[in-house]
Amino acid sequence: ECDVEDCWQREMIVNGEPDPVTEFAFGGKVYVRRRAEEAQESFPAISGAVTAYGRMLLWGLMEQAGRENVYYIDTDSLLVNGEGLERLKPRIKQGELGALHLDRIAEKVIIYGLKDYAIEGRRTVKGVKMNAIRTGEHSWIEQKWERFHSALHHGRLEDYRIRLSPKVLKLPYTKGVVLPSGVVVPHRL
User: Fold this and answer.
1) Half-sphere exposure of 15 (CA within 13 A, CB side)
2) Sequential pLDDT tens for the chain (189 residues)
């Protein structure tokens, strides 16, 4: 415990520790932050098994739709053409847990890259906020709240600050070879 008005932060190197430890005081308490490690009670094999199951399920859905009919896949979704939709219809059960549901049918889709696409003119980009201001074809400016540790470091705890932060997408696709037709041939290990 410390004085409620006393706010500070320092990095320390502890003998035998490979990474520095951050110690900071705020609100009358002293906190220690170490580099994040696997929690003692965690069991990563469970999340690994769930992820593997989901990937194999998606692979089966791609096979059912016909790989030539699948335009894009993500963690929990497929973007298919009309033929792919017809082949997947037996698996579509709106509102049923574990079944497919049809999100929408679109006439115009542009796929820019991983988690970066436009459906009917509405662009979705992972990591870019919906209210970000577009400054170029692949760049935006968005508002970011100052993080607590940054405010503590700069001694500004009386209010929160918002800053404008540029975001530029890296476009090279590295998951496979993109053919002139747009088809991606995955790398083989």
Assistant:
1) 0
2) 566 567 777 787 777 777 778 887 777 788 887 776 777 788 999 999 999 999 999 999 999 999 999 999 998 899 999 999 999 999 999 999 989 999 999 999 988 888 888 999 888 888 888 889 989 888 889 998 887 777 777 777 777 788 888 888 877 778 888 888 878 888 888
Provide the token pair at 112: 């820019």
67 touches 41 (CB < 8 A): no
**Do β-strands 8-12 and 77-80 pair in parallel, antiparallel, or remain unpaired?**
unpaired
Give the span between the Cα atoms of 6 and 139, in whole angstroms.
Answer: 41
Ramachandran angles phi, psi of 44, nearest 5°: -60, -20
Residue 72's H or E segment, with its range, is strand 70-74
Strand stretches in 14-173, DSSP E: 21-26, 29-33, 70-74, 77-80, 109-113, 116-119, 122-125, 133-136, 139-145, 162-168
Distance CA 155, CA 24 (A): 12
By the 8 A CB rule, do 147 and 125 touch? no
Q: Kindly list the distances between the CA atom of residue 41 and the CA atoms of 32, 100, 171, in Å, as whole numbers in the listed order.
A: 20, 34, 39
User: Hey, CA dihedral for 44, 129, 102, 180, is it positive or negative?
Assistant: negative
